[in-house]
Amino acid sequence: MIGNFRSYLRKILAIVGKDVATEIRTKEMMSAMFVFSLLIIFIFNFTFDLRAENVRTLAPGVLWVAIAFAGMLGLSRSFILERDKGVLDGLLLAPVDRSAIYFGKMLGNVLFISSVEIVILPVFVILFNQSLASLPKLSGVVLLGTIGLAGVGTLFSAMAVHTRAREVLLPIMLFPVIVPVILAAVRLTAAILDQNPLGEVSHWLTLLVAFDVIFIATSFMLFEFVVEE
Question: What angle do CA 88, 149, 55 make, to 5 degrees?
Answer without folding.
Answer: 145
